[in-house]
Amino acid sequence: MSLGAAFGLIACAPVKTASPQEAKVFAPAAWRAPIGVPAPISGTWWQTFDEPAINDLVEAALAHNTDILEAISRVEEARQQIRLSHSALLPTLDGSVGGQTNRSLGTTGITHTRSIQPELQASYELDLWGRLRTLENAAQMSYQASQSDRDNIRLSVASTTVRAYISLVSLDTQLKVTRDTAQSRRDALRVAEDRANEGYTSQLELTQAQSEYESAAQMIPELEQAIRQQENAIRLLTGTLPGDLHRGRELQTLTPPTVPGLLPAQLLRRRPDIQQAEQLVAAADLKLDARRDEFLPQVQLSSGIGRLYVNALDFDPVKVWDLGASVLVPIYSAGRLEAQVGVATAQRNQAAYSYRATALKAFGEVENSLSGVKRLEEQITRVHARRVTLARSLEIARDRYQGGYSSYLEVLDAQRNLFNTELSAIQIRENQLKNVISLYQALGGGWVPEK
């Protein structure tokens, strides 16, 4: 077939459309919230907490987490797919042995023929139009996407592990404050019981004191159960059975790491999930090219060589061979080839839109975390000021009660407000630390693409 005829066939293929314009992403010139001076982010960013317990947990999770191990297996699967695609570019060689026996009636009587034929057969498809090479390149891009997926899971597991540990020490702190509060209320309840028995206070004040003590005591087993579940969840992240966990410093002594700096335009190259989405678009586009190449002729070469052993020749071997070529030209496929191109185009467009969605999500996550840095600092300042004020209010309420100027209900109310504020301060501190972790994750951690 002439080259002109071949190009005539490819002209019958549907026109390849470019990726949708709506799928393109343009980075903003700057972040809405202020950010630090741009600088490299450490690959082991969790060490900036300066907490050995966190370092040990993250290292264990990266080595034994089942999601990471599963992702590593997917990388190996993709690598083998490259080998599979590359094998289509090379000749195949097969060995065969055929045997036959035949008993028939002829003019000379009954004849009994036996034969055996060992043979080597070779076949090879000429990749004239680059279709097979394109499929190999698509497998290469899918392999790179699997590596980016593995790295994204590693980043997610590391971030989740650090957040889970922060939640654990936050629960520890809440439990300590709750136990101290329960003990304080227990002591106050004893005083209220003595004063009620002596007739100095009413039964209403006594029942209120009993209610406040039971309220704090009820929270203790609830927090203990939450701690146990959090420990088990962290052990699951590290790929181990449920059990106790070693603690390091308390929550209030953990300082938030310095906010990392990164320009918006750098984000598209700094997150493994964005890289994965981009690589999947490239792989889908190559598969679309391969589908369009199916409109061109396929040339197949084949050959075989062997020996024929027949009883009529006293099994004296006879050399046999064959050599051939075939050209497969698509003429009519009832729309199958066109539909395959249409499917590949739709899949490429889906991958492009998925890339845009991933990138937009990434910008949103960074903006939210950056905004949270300042807002949470303001909340901590306010809650600390409120705690100081409520502590002073409790002292005043106790003095007024002891001086006989107010009832014990004012003391209980001041205690309740201070306790709730202390728990709120712990929660805000936890949120502050988690927000910085989320910012590191949103910026891609310390991930560096493999060359």
UniProtKB/TrEMBL annotation:
NCBIfam families: outer_NodT. SUPFAM superfamilies: Outer membrane efflux proteins (OEP) (SSF56954). The keyword Coiled coil applies. Gene3D superfamilies: Outer membrane efflux proteins (OEP). It is a lipid-anchor. Keywords: Cell outer membrane, Coiled coil, Lipoprotein, Membrane, Palmitate, Transmembrane, Transmembrane beta strand. Pfam families: OEP (PF02321). It is found in: Cell outer membrane. This is Efflux transporter outer membrane subunit. InterPro entries: MdtP/NodT-like, OMP_efflux. Residues 206-233 form a coiled coil.
